[in-house]
Amino acid sequence: MNADVRSFFGRPIIVGGGIAGLMTALHLAPEPVLLLSRNRLGTDASSTWAQGGLAASVGDDDSPTLHLADTLAAGDGLCDEEIASRILRAAPDAIETLAGFGVRFDRTPEGKLRLGQEAAHGRRRIVHAGGDCSGREVMRALVSAVHSTPSIVVVEGVEARRLAVKENAVRGIWASCSMGSVFFGSRRVVLATGGIGGLFFDTTNPLGSCGQGLALAARAGAVLSDLEFIQFHPTALDGPGRPMQLISEAIRGEGATIVDETGRRFLEGLEGIELAPRDIVARAVWKHLSKGHRVFLDTREKPGTAFAVQFPTIASACRDVGIDPGRDLIPIRPAQHYHMGGVAVDADGRTSVAGLWACGEVASTGLHGANRLASNSLTEAVVCARWVAESLLGTTVRRTKPAITNDYPSPDPTTVRSLLSRALGIVRDSESLKATARALLPLADGNDAASDPAAVGLMIAIAALWREESRGAHYRADFPHRAAIARRFEITLADALAAARELAHSPSLEGAG
Known about the structure:
Elements (H helix, E strand, L loop, with lengths): L12 E3 L3 H10 L4 E5 L8 H4 L4 E2 L8 H11 L6 H20 L14 E2 L9 E2 L6 H14 L4 E5 L2 E8 L2 E9 L2 E6 L3 E3 L20 H8 L4 E2 L4 E8 L11 H5 L3 E4 L17 H13 L4 E4 L8 H4 L1 H9 L9 E10 L2 E3 L11 E3 L4 E2 L11 H18 L20 H10 L6 H15 L6 H16 L23 E2 L1 H13 L8
Parallel strand pairs: 1-2, 1-10, 2-6, 10-17, 16-18
Antiparallel strand pairs: 3-5, 4-5, 7-8, 8-9, 11-16, 11-19, 12-15, 13-14, 14-15
Helix pairs in contact: 1-5, 1-11, 3-4, 4-11, 6-14, 12-13, 12-14, 13-14, 13-15, 14-15
């Protein structure tokens, strides 16, 4: 980065180069904006890996009301119905917006959008682009649009390390690049940093996505919400590679079945069978695996010979490990896939810190509740990016002074990955959560590469300990039933540190929230 960073002072700063960040930047045009990305745009964003597409009620037999009903059912009582309704009503227009930016959606010979079916959707409403390459196609179009927009300055190879905050208001960002530490002054910052997959051994997300945005917000004093709700996708390719190859739910929507090594469809007792909500299918697969069985996706009849045409990315990944989906069973196991929790935001994406917005997976809007409905996440990112941009443009621009550059270590989740994988997986219990919180406390209190991942993991562990029930993607072996009243929990880093310190001094203390 050769430019004098002082020339960028005062510009809105977007941290993250996925769909949420790119769409926010495009909606801000022609307002000059600075977009920071750790790597070249499109190379390490979870958005690029998205297979399932975008959910929108664009079919003749569909409506936002029906889409909302499915979303609320999947969310298991914790969706913000008003927010969810607003987002889903805007979803069809978001598809048109993406098409306007050059996204080539899959269409029928008559030119209508080709719609897919996924679990817990009552209608075919999943809009795809390039079969199972939806995220890659959307990112291709948006990256091209961003590079063609003069008002957007993209700075690649820059990693945000800390937010500068004074009197609960953002003053800028300390970052790191090949030239060392640098400070970008701004009173308007958007976090669009993605999820937490890198905190787990088994994940379908880039390993570099380890909750950096959550750490930035938490260290700045922001309120976070719903952190205990982590979605595990039931069908990831079971092999040695990490991150794991996602085997899209859309394949089950086309008729594929889940079987064990004997060929038995062991999910037949579940309502919806293979198309039951993800948390239910993932727990059933996990339980069967824990009994010593192997689990497979059977695609030999459906989609059968059409598999490679409909799902070219997955077919290629299978071929790389010697599997022909038209003839062979595909070995699968659950893997961390999406984080329903995040930085608590209002309807316009504002956080509890003045001048800080959040958009995409890093944000907790209330759309997903306790369990995300398939393909609602990309839709949320596209829709909410417009509202974040409009909110940001409505704020008063104030002068920002330069700050002394501070040096913060680059986050590395290696040290905490085993702790979080054991305690915060598909099934949880009090003792493992307490032990993990105690182990994470000194790491989160430190200032080394493990500190930020440990801080994020600690907040999730404390939130999971507080929720003494099983709901959606959060399942407690010691509290297997839902509570009578659905409650959303908010947490700050200070809350989590205080709770962990109390646990450290009182080993028998039960979680409360």
